[in-house]
Design goal:
41% of the residues lie in helices and 15% in strands. By secondary structure, it is of the alpha/beta class.
Amino acid sequence: MTKIGKKILTAVTAAACILSVGACGGNGGARPEATAAPNATTTAPAQTTTTTPPATLAEEAKEAINEIETDLPELENKEVHLLACFDLNPRGGQVKSPALEMFETKLGGKIVTDLCSWNDRYDKLATLVNAGDSPDMFSAEDLDIIPGNIIFQQKFMAMDKYIDYDSELWAPVKELNDQFALNGKHYLGLTSTDLKTVLIYNKKTIEENGLSDPAQLVMDGEWDWDAMYDMFSKFCNPADEIYGIDCWEFEPDFALTCGVPYVGMKDGKIVHNLKDPMVQKVQDFFLKLNRAEIPMPVTKREIPLNIGQGKTLFFAKGAYCLYEPTTIEGMGMTTEDLMFVPLPKCPEADEWYLPSVVKGFSIPLGAKNPEGTAAYLNCVMICRDNEKVKEIEENQLFNEYGWTQEMYDMLIHARELTDAHPVFDYQKTINDDLYGELNEETKASYNHGTPWGDTVDALADLTQTYIDEANERLAALS
């Protein structure tokens, strides 16, 4: 990796780990893939981490964490076993999270990680549960765990016995956790929301083409669909292979900026919103992009070097991509040129809605140390809004990792926007076949110029069939 690639990766990894103790400290990063250890790729065999690497926190930071007052009961069982494709223990020079430091020093706790590939995590979980060797923690971050894998696999236990969701400590995220409760019980221990998708861009490209700076538009509250369309129309020229946006997963995440998911939860039941007027507005905007010849370069998707070369305006990607050396280095930019913004606001929405991921864990059925999982999550919550921890984070960003003030301000602001009005889509959790159908058809307006009205009726009927089955399983959940 070049020095530039290392510098960007270190900075962004540090920010994502330390700015949200519910991220690397609470759940391994913006996505599990993002913070997977070097040997925990999606194809790597499972490995078990039995020792904690040396702490990478500065001594003064460790002292500050030690001074934080806690009222946590002593752990009878100090080992907590995590099944994941990432490791909460710092590896490869990663920053150690304040929550892990607190868990280890205040409680004598230890996270033992059983690494597996992302694709195999549910199969590995089922094998362990059926063998009576259940792990204590399982990442809830992708939200494919609920409701689908709760009601269909039934490999998770309710956490209300171990976490006091009504306590002062958990008050900041009570509403978030209640949102995902099933039949009045909590199967997730969520400590925060976080950015799901960002639009990465090259500041030189913006300047050289006389375009408005997206970051400034965000700060001024003027970054919306119309502003993005205006930039596309001025910049794009498919005949010369000059495109507005690139990446595979732009459409489903952009659709959530209308504030209404394709599949959601209402009054404790799964529902689809395919005929909702706001969903229609998203599809109309996609059709507008198509007819203006602004679709992505379908045959050349995910070529981030086009960003560095000024051939593509935005690279839309899950925030986890900022952890990937090949992605960052492949853009061919320096830290001074790299910038990012959240997805734009729907002009007709009442608020700025953004697609979100969550940070937190679930407890598998048969876990031997659910109290240990709860204790770790309590440490995350204690650190979550602590001023001493925030000071540690800022010092690490600016003094050790070379972040620019602009990058820092944008990350904080974008997270605040996401926290205020996060939107989650449940289509992945119902059925793989349904997800494949929805994922294809909801992109048809943008990619093929197909009006939404031509497909929505049949798609709604198919979706309702799958949802009815899921709701029956949900009602029977004990």
